[in-house]
Amino acid sequence: MSSRHHNAHLRARRSQAFTLLELLVAVSVMTLVIYVLYALFDQTQMALRKNAAQVDVNEGGRAAMEMIVRELSQMEVSGYPAITNLQTKVISPGSTSFFSRVTPDNTALLLAYQSDALPPEEDAWAIEQGFRTNILQDFTFTSWGDSGFLMTSYRVIDVTNGIGTLARYRINGTLPVPPPEDEEKYTKTERFNFRFHKVANTPNSVFEPITDGVIHLRISPYDQLGRPLGHDRMFYDPLGLNLERHGAAGQALFPIDPNRPVDGTLIQDHYVQSRAEFYGALPSYFDVEMAVLEPQIVKQVWSLPPKPKEVRANFLGRQIGKVTLFRQRVPIRDMK
Fold it and tell me: What is the model's pTM?
């Protein structure tokens, strides 16, 4: 009787154990759950890293734009008068108050949006259809601060394949007392312009870095009616600026009023951009554009071979979603 009871107990215990198939199914289900959880965790971490990178770009870009806007809105004319030649009666411009140009030796990238092949640079139609050229300009202006008259210059430095660091340089713009021979030889306007353009052409090594990954920096002047002031724009407006405009070959495009001091000079530059210089008067406001690339994309670009240039250009064209564009309209309080 006891033996029969013992055998029944063993059979009951065996019926409670897991079979090999059940163990395999349980392990498979557990592996699937772990894989799904890991995938969710990985996506969450990736989203956090992207958000952190975007926050860094936004913070750096906003801080840079706030600095530019704050200082640019305080721009003032330098105040040294125009020069009249007593013999020829020709009126030369006064002292330079603002100067912008496409930065020399900073080659911008031709970014493809939807194609893997870049068209020839002379094919303007193809470029307009599927490509864009990022502009790297620098600009220098005068303002008045707590420490006196100031000259400030912004430039994208250390440019590699169209990507660089936005940097700033500022000095006191007040003219020192010259020796008697210089005071007799050069007017205050001429001495100020020499100092101003020396600041505009200062070497990159003295500039202070602000933010990295800048692939586009452009500043555009507008008049009081909101019209763009370009080398090829001529508007009839008796209250407007007396601007001289020149083409790429240096030819005069439109006549100016010879009885008034020249307020500015606009010259066609590469990529049909205007080199702008303003003297005794300023535009009503400027539009400032700056595009910043995320840091990890910058590292990937620099890891690619520099030649042929189409490799990096095509890669950047597919990363257009990683570019943050900042744009700000800056009114100028002291226009005259």
Answer: 0.77
